[in-house]
């Protein structure tokens, strides 16, 4: 077979070049040329294409009405880890391709080894775990640590994409894990493993294999600060589901977040804790994010956020301190800095409380990231509490979006959040008026507010 022709293509302007160069000749962009395979450039290839084109022209493409098509129920396997199932939208869909991204060392290999072992043992699925990063001995050591050494999981140490596919064709596993895609290379390209071209082309081969053979494929991808471009970002459109494994590697908690899912809701979260015996599921995340001391302290406020399909209680902390520099600092961990600046401006303009001579630090406890606006009210309350050095009672909870005119706007699933707060023993909830339930919720007093000024006066009364 003739070797396919290679060329280099600029990622900015799509210009082609026969050789690699530091700068694109067309648009002048630096370091934008990426190697790729020229598709069907040979005479034989062209002939093939034209032949297929005639076939396609003669064949009758049939149009069907949406109502006539009967859907095949997607078959889902439980991975044996309910939190992983939750992030996947209710289990692993057979024949799908899943990408799990995350920083190195966050626990991707551990998670997948545990999931494969549990799937093999509980559902009788035959998994193949291909590792390009670790030797089989290293995986065995890890399995011993996890007490999974007797699990019926097939292992393969391989980085050559074609070879991997050849082995998979022979063994016919039902689930295949490739850990990690950055180590895989295809012989079609000469560039080094881990480069954009290699990652993209080997992933494309694996995805094609998965779709044609029906094997369920799980790809692991590293996201690194410098190498983000060669990371799984370029793969996101090729796969059915993208999960990100997040968390600070210094804390125990890890969050698995769905950012794309053709078979379920996005922003579904799975929460895990890393222990000596591997990842343990956390089925009631509020309990860990809320572990607070007995005493109410200034600057600490609890809010209910909604991640995916469940409400979650998190603690937001603020520290407001006199600035020693000319320019006051606004630092936020777990929320967007621009949003903090906006909330402080609203607090000044519509609440009459200024922080212009104060440094403001915000931290969301437990490494949670606030991705919705429902936590606005809690951030503002935490800032007021810290600024005045007055604690908000421990069993109070707040949620709601704050608009630019100081109005308190409703959020999704308000009643569910209030119920969740009540379940966790909270006695008072400050909520947007439009979210106030018609019927009283047992065990919790709801204080409905329409404007920031009402929130401030309610908080003053608690003092
Ligand atoms: P790993 O799964 O190798 O991460 P990744 O594949 O995402 O690079 O996890 C590595 C970290 O997990 C490592 O720092 C040690 C820790 N760990 C535990 O704390 N307990 C365990 O039982 C295992 C297997 C790993
Ligand atoms: Mg790993």
Describe the structure.
By secondary structure, the protein is an alpha/beta fold. It has three domains: 4-44; 75-283, P-loop containing nucleotide triphosphate hydrolases (Rossmann fold); 287-462, Ribosomal Protein S5, domain 2 (2-Layer Sandwich), CATH 3.30.230.10. It has eleven helices and 23 strands. A hairpin with a 5-residue loop joins β1 and β2 (16-17). The model is unreliable at 52-57 and 226-230 (pLDDT under 50). The protein binds thymidine-5'-diphosphate and magnesium ion. Thymidine-5'-diphosphate binds at residues 102, 104-110, 142, 145-146, 274, 276-278.
Please write out the topology.
Blueprint lengths: L5 E5 L5 E2 L15 E5 L5 H16 L17 E2 L4 H6 L4 E2 L3 E6 L5 H16 L3 E5 L4 H10 L8 E4 L3 H11 L3 E5 L16 H18 L2 E7 L18 E6 L6 E9 L7 E7 L2 E4 L3 H5 L10 E8 L2 E13 L7 E4 L3 H15 L6 E7 L11 H13 L7 E3 L2 E2 L5 E2 L4 H10 L4 E5 L12 E5 L2 H10 L2
Parallel strand pairs: 6-10, 6-11, 7-8, 7-9, 9-10, 17-18, 19-22, 22-23
Antiparallel strand pairs: 1-2, 1-3, 4-5, 11-12, 12-13, 13-14, 15-16, 16-18, 20-21
Thymidine-5'-diphosphate binds next to helix 3 and helix 4.
Keywords:
463 residues, nine-stranded mixed sheet, binds magnesium ion, 3 domains, Rossmann fold, alpha/beta, binds thymidine-5'-diphosphate, four-stranded mixed sheet, 23 strands, Ribosomal Protein S5, domain 2, globular, 11 helices
Query: How many domains comprise the coordinates?
Result: 3
> What's the overall average pLDDT, rounded?
86
The outline comes out as: globular
Helix content: 25-40%
> Which topology of the largest domain does CATH recognise?
Rossmann fold
Number of strands: 23
CATH architectural group of the largest domain: 3-Layer(aba) Sandwich
Our measurement of the CA-to-CA distance between the termini, rounded to an integer number of angstroms, reads 81 Å
Biggest sheet layout: 9 strands, mixed
Distinct ligand kinds: thymidine-5'-diphosphate, magnesium ion
User: What amount of the residues lies in strands?
Assistant: 25-35%
Derived from helix and strand composition plus strand pairing, the structural class reads: alpha/beta
Provide the gyration radius in Å: 27 Å
The CATH class of the largest domain, by name, is: Alpha Beta
Number of helices: 11
- What is the topology, as strand order, of the major beta sheet? 8-7-9-10-6-11-12-13-14
Q: Can you say what the CATH homologous superfamily of the largest domain is?
A: P-loop containing nucleotide triphosphate hydrolases
Poorly predicted runs of 5 or more residues: 52-57, 226-230
